[in-house]
Structure formats: structure tokens, C-alpha cells
Amino acid sequence: SGEKEALQTLVLVATDDTCYQFIGQMPFDKLFERYTDPKIMNKHIKKLPKGESDDSELKVFYRKRNEQLELHSFAWMTGVGVYHGKFREKDAIHEPLTIKDFLSDSYQKKNGLS
Known about the structure:
- The protein contains 2 helices and 7 strands, in the order ββααβββββ.
- The chain is mostly beta strands.
- The strands form 2 sheets. A 4-stranded antiparallel sheet has the order 4-5-6-7, with no helix packed on it. Strands 1-2-3 form a 3-stranded antiparallel sheet.
């Protein structure tokens, strides 16, 4: 066909207990428009129990392949532990399964300290 494949944009948003995943084409209003439907939105969130802390931090890691950077993995620190996983290969992305692995390392209390 000779036409370029439309680029997909991935937006990850993390709060203290929820990770949201938005996938689509730019501009942003077009990307977010389909998520106004709760049936679609509910497939793209990961909800966690509340922890003792409201702190949250999301880190995304890239790797270099064929002289290009691509998404590789992520780590999400929450009040209940660190969740981490890998992203699917870009040609294997089928919503809502962009995150291939979603693993948990819960905080352990040691000698009364967390």
C-alpha cells in the first residue's frame, strides 16, 4: 500500500493506588476520547490496595535495538510495594495487554519497621 503505519502512543499515569494505561494515536484529545466509556477504561487500569503511604513513583526503562530506543520495562513504587513488568514488543501490542508482566514485590516488615 505504501502508506506508513500510524504511530501508536502509550501514556502511563500512576497515582498512589492506580496505574492507568492509554493507547492510541495523537493528538491527545483523540487518544483519550475512547476512554470516556467505562467498559473500555476498566480494561486499562490496575487498581491496588491502599498502602500506608500515599507516595507513588513510576519509572519507565528503554533499550536500544537497531539504533532505536524502544520501551522495555517499568517499575512502579506504591505504598504496598514495587510493581514491575515488561512491555510487549511493539508489533505484538494488542490492547489492553500492552504490559506483558505485572509482578509485585511487597514490602516486608522487619523488626517492627517497614
